[in-house]
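User: Assemble these into one structure.

Assistant: Restating your components, then the assembled model:
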Amino acid sequence: MNNTKPPDFKTQFAEEIFKGLTSYPKKISSKFFYDERGDELFQQIMELPEYYLTGKEYQILLRHREEIGDAFASMEGFDLIELGAGDGKKTKVLLRHFEEKNFDYKYLPVDISKNVLEQLSASLQQEIPAVEVEPQQGTYGEVLSRLADYRDRKKIILFLGSNIGNLTPQEAVVFLRKISSSMDEKDLFFMGVDQKKEPRVILDAYNDSAGVTEAFNKNLLVRMNRELDADFEPDTFMHWPLYNPETGVAKSYLVSTKEQTVQINSLDLEVHFQKWETIHTEVSQKYDDTSIAWLAEEAGLEITGSWTDKESCFKNYLFKRTGS
Ligand code: AVJ
């Protein structure tokens, strides 16, 4: 019979899938969206008319680069550490400005994917060859503890794209505490956060008419088929995003449209779905100034600046460590 003894897991993906699909309600962490195909689909999401986040943040950085640069700069220079750099499209706006101003700094993009870091370094070499780049491969936690010892120069940690939204507010507090405890009193933390707004606009961002977000969500099923020898039929699941304007939480689900049993061969697991049973696949938490102030306070951070667009659609906050 199934489920009597968990196999020894070959990968973190295997282990978390086993745990997530044998719990009730079923869940899969959104960090598993980003395989090669998932990276591609996310690139397409950022180009969608409904997915306003990337464009809004880009505009904020472009428009306010001068002031942001002034807030970053210091006599001794700085190390710019970016968590989850991706393709760096938004960061390049700042880097270009820093080059123009002849700032003394180094850029340290952090990513778990070696591939992403190589592509980013290559494109920087092409587009802004003067930038000194030192890629850091690893999880955020690993790199942060490694860099906590970098005490000689001012550190500025970047966390853009509202990636904080993939954590629940409780998880976000834990994460931000790690950030603040890796900071010295002169260091800064710069974070982009999607804001609460007209609920329809938020819902549409996760429910685009071209179906790219649906494919992104269902790519988890495709990935399990390939990497864990499973037999999910993506067409028998629905992409179902929702947004709660009270809590600011946007969530995405995969909903089984029929009763079915799926085999996940490499986990030696049979997963049963009742008709309309769900897999929770993503949290995209939205904040406002009040909830960000709470988050900062809980995490030992103090807001020292913020920049937004005309409609306060998206906001970039600058923090220092509390008590300095
Ligand atoms: C990269 C986490 C900011 O939650 O908006 C986009 C990922 N998911 N469409 C987000 C995502 C569905 C995105 N973040």
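The chain has eleven helices and 13 strands.
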